[in-house]
Amino acid sequence: MRIVAISDIHGNLKTVRRLVESLNQEFDALLVAGDITHFSGAESARKVLEPLLEAGIKIVAVHGNCDGMDVPELLEKLGISAHDNRVKIGKTGIVGIGGSNITPFHTVWELSEHEIRGILERNYQKGDLILSHVPPHGTKADLTHSGLHAGSKALREFIEERLPPIVVAGHIHEARSIDKVGETLVVNPGPLFKGYYAVVDLDEIQAILTNL
Fold first, then answer.
1. How many domains does the chain have?
2. 166-168 and 2-6: which strand pairing?
3. Most buried among 14, 48, 98, 182, by the most CB within 10 A?
4. Which residues touch 79 (CB under 8 Å, ≥6 apart)?
5. Tell me: the pLDDT tens digits for 33-79?
6. Confidence at 196, pLDDT banded by 50, 70, 90
7. E strand spans, the chain
C-alpha cells in the first residue's frame, strides 16, 4: 500500500492544487497531519481540502494546533477525521492525534502528555500506523532550529513500548526528516506550504521525502 503524507498546509491552496496535479501515480490514501489552516476556521479549511476531496483519493486527516476551533468538526462531517479514533484503509488501521503537546505560544489545540497517552491507549491496535500532528520527542522529526526537541514524550514512550510500524507527523517545519525509534519509522514530510511531502510504502515500511 502506497500513501502520500502531507502536513502543515497553513492555508496555501496553491500548493494543494499543485500536489493534486503532480499525483500521477496510483496511491491508496493521502494522510494529512494537521495545520490545514493558519489560525482559520472551517470555511477556510474546506476550501483548502476541496482539491484533495475532488481528486477521489481516500483521505485521513487530523487537525493541527493552528487550526480553528471548528476545523475538527468539519473533518468529522467530511468523514476524514482520525483524531482520537481508529480508522481503516484496507487492512491498515490508522490512529490519529490532532493538535500538539503544550507549546509556549498558547495555540488553539494543545494537549497534555496525559491526554496524548490516553488517545493512544484507547485506540491503538497492534500494527496500526499513527498519524499525529506532533512528532515523537527526541527524533530528527521534532528538532527545532534552536536545537531543542519539541515533540511529545508520551508519544515517544508509547512507540518504545508498543512498536508501531510507522508514525507520520508534522508540526516542526524545519524538522523534515525520516528517522527511526527502534524499528518504528518516523516520517515528518515537511510543510506542504513550502512544497514538501512524502511517499510512504506501508508494505515495505519505507518512505521517500519529495517536493513539488
1. 1
2. unpaired
3. 98
4. none
5. 999 999 999 999 999 999 999 998 999 999 999 999 999 999 999 99
6. very high
7. 2-6, 29-33, 59-62, 86-89, 92-97, 100-101, 110-111, 129-132, 166-168, 177-181, 184-188, 196-201, 206-211
- pLDDT-derived band at 187 (thresholds 50, 70, 90) equals very high
Cβ distance 27 to 2 under 8 Å? yes
- Residue 65: per-residue pLDDT: 98
pLDDT at 24 over 80: no
Residues 6/31, Cβ–Cβ less than 8 Å: yes
CATH of the domain at 49: 3.60.21.10
pLDDT value of position 63: 98
Evaluate the CA torsion angle 137, 141, 144, 148 in order and state its sign: positive
Those residues whose C-beta lies under 8 Å from the C-beta of residue 44, and which sit 6 or more positions away, are: 11, 37, 68
Q: Which domain holds residue 146?
A: 2-211
